[in-house]
C-alpha cells in the first residue's frame, strides 16, 4: 500500500466527490415534490388521528371502524413512517446527509404498520389498500435511494 494514500473509511463519500457541491436545480425540484408528497401523508395521518369529521366522512364506514380498532403500536409505526419521511424531506431541504436515516426509519415504520394492516383485513375495509401500500413503500425507497445518491455526489453535507 502506498504510504501517501490513506484508506478511505467505510461510509465516507468518494474521494472525487466535491464535498458541499452546489445543488443542481433538478435536486430542488425532486426534493420539493418529495416534501409535498410527504406533507400529504402527514395531513392524512393528522386528520385521521384527530378524527376530523369532514375528512373522515369521505371514508367508507368499514375503513373508519378498522382505523378505530388499530392497536397503539400500529398507530406508532404509522407515525414513524409518516413523520420519518417528513423529517427526511426537511433534512434534504437543509442538505443534511442524515436524511437517509430518517427515510430508513420511515420505511421500517411503514412496513410494520402496513404489514399488520394487510394481515388484519385492511384491503376489505376500503378499496385500493394494496396498490396504495405499494406506492407508499416505493416512494419511501426512492427517497432513501435519492438521499444516498446525493450524499455520495457531495450535495448533502
How would you portray this structure in words?
This protein has helices at 25-49, 53-56, 61-68, 72-93, 99-119, 122-125, 129-152. The model has no long low-confidence stretch (mean pLDDT 90). The chain is mainly alpha-helical and 157 residues long. It has one domain.
Q: What is the residue-mean pLDDT, rounded to a whole number?
A: 90
Basic shape: elongated
Beta-strand residue percentage: under 5%
Contiguous helical run count: 7
The low-pLDDT segments are none
Topology as a string of helices (H) and strands (E) = HHHHHHH
Specify the structural class.
Answer: mainly alpha
Distance between the termini: 29 Å
**Computed Rg:** 19 Å
Largest sheet: none
Strand and helix layout:
Layout: H1 25-49, H2 53-56, H3 61-68, H4 72-93, H5 99-119, H6 122-125, H7 129-152
Helix pairs in contact: 1-4, 4-5, 5-7
In short:
With 157 residues, this protein is mostly helical. It contains seven helices and no strands.
Question: What are its keywords?
Answer:
157 residues; mainly alpha; 7 helices
Amino acid at each position: 500500500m502506498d504510504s501517501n494514500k490513506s484508506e478511505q473509511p467505510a461510509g465516507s463519500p468518494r474521494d472525487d466527490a466535491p464535498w458541499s457541491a452546489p445543488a443542481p436545480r433538478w435536486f430542488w425540484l425532486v426534493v420539493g415534490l418529495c416534501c409535498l408528497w410527504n406533507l400529504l401523508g402527514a395531513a392524512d395521518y393528522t386528520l385521521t388521528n384527530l378524527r376530523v369529521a369532514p375528512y373522515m366522512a369521505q371514508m367508507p364506514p368499514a375503513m373508519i371502524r378498522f382505523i378505530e380498532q388499530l392497536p397503539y403500536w400500529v398507530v406508532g409505526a404509522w407515525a414513524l413512517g409518516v413523520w420519518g419521511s417528513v423529517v427526511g424531506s426537511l433534512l434534504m431541504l437543509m442538505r443534511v446527509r442524515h436524511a437517509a436515516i430518517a427515510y430508513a426509519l420511515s420505511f421500517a415504520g411503514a412496513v410494520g404498520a402496513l404489514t399488520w394492516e394487510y394481515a388484519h383485513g385492511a384491503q376489505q375495509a376500503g378499496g385500493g389498500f394494496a396498490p396504495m401500500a405499494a406506492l407508499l413503500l416505493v416512494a419511501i425507497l426512492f427517497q432513501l435511494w435519492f438521499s444516498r445518491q446525493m450524499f455520495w455526489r457531495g450535495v448533502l453535507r
